[in-house]
Amino acid sequence: MTEIKSSIIDGIETFEAEINGEKIEWDNELTYNSHLQTERLLSAQIGVSGKPDETLFIIIHQTMELWIKLCLHELGIVIECIKKDQLSKSFKTFDRIAAIQRHMIQSWEILATLTPHDFLTFRGYLRKASGFQSHQYRELEFLLGNKNKDLTVVHRDNKPVYEQLMKVLNAPSLYDETLKLLSKKGFVVPSKAIDRDWSEPYQSSPEIEEVWRLIYEDTEKYWELYMLAERVTALEYYFQEWRFKHMKTVSRVIGYSKGTAGSSGVDYLVKALNLSFFPELWSMRTKLSTTQEENNSKCPL
User: Exposed/middle/buried for 241, CB within 10 Å: 0-12, 13-18, 19+?
Assistant: First the structure.
């Protein structure tokens, strides 16, 4: 039997034992399990069908919710940095969000192992429950700029959740704060873009497209803003890739059947792919390439 030694360190009973040639220490004040709440975490997979494949379905969606929670946390940090014009400080956090998004995209590969037969063994037990009711996903969309008050209606009976969604709905999004920063830096940003009802969807404008074109055509002068733009673009790039992977996974599992909440299923997810959070950052690219081609075609003499 391994000998366990105990002592009092900083008023806390501490234990020590040699296991496989290593000295292992622990105490009763804070443990791995109490810190991570593993008992609560591992007891949260409560199925409703008794079918074996429901466990996969639950765990994939629970982990997705955890990653979305982390994205929301990190986006809060990014937005504060942009408000304070601390762009270089925000880049590390932007890159972390991108890494999280790539992981979330790969998560669909696991769910895609659920065959149509597997899903049908428990789908009926889910009744009207669906990802449409994910308040964290809705908050993430609002933070990125996809503002739609109607989408909060399914959460109105959960007061704390509803109030949080309304708070984010009525606050500037990531792109709104970015445009406000561009205005502070002297770029010509229309007042309608930075003095408006934040709960309404953002409307793209040629003036903003021109601002981004200027930044991209002189990256040395506007290096930090250029790097900010690329990271903001990456957020949407990976978000849309996540949406696409979601759509293809749903198509693989249920075809074109209706969603559990009554939506059109795959068709609804396809429509979401056409939404853009940062429209001018995408449309500007066409103008930029055209301008550069015209400049390159001119005779240098």
Answer: middle
Whole-angstrom distance, CA of residue 139 vs CA of residue 68: 9
Domain 53-290 matching CATH 3.30.565.10: the answer reads: no
Contact (CB, 8 A) for 45 and 144: no
Q: Cα(196)–Cα(208) distance, rounded to whole angstroms?
A: 15
In 20-176, where do the E strands start and end?
A: 22-27
d(CA 56, CA 59): 5
CA 60 to chain centre: 16
The C-alpha atoms of residue 215 and residue 86 are separated, in whole angstroms, by 18
pTM: 0.90
The pLDDT, as a whole number, for residue 100 is: 98
Are 243 and 272 in contact by the 8 Å Cβ rule? The answer is yes
Query: Nearest CA to 188 among 208, 160, 167, 169?
Result: 208
Please report which confidence band the pLDDT of residue 290 belongs to, taking 50, 70 and 90 as the band edges: low
**Residue 8: DSSP 8-state:** E
CA proximity to 253, closest of 109, 112, 56:
112
CA distance 131 to 238: 19
Here the tokens at position 277 are 């959070």
> 275: phi > 0 → left, psi -120 to 50 → alpha, else beta; which?
beta
Q: Which residues belong to CATH 1.20.58.480 in the chain?
A: 53-290
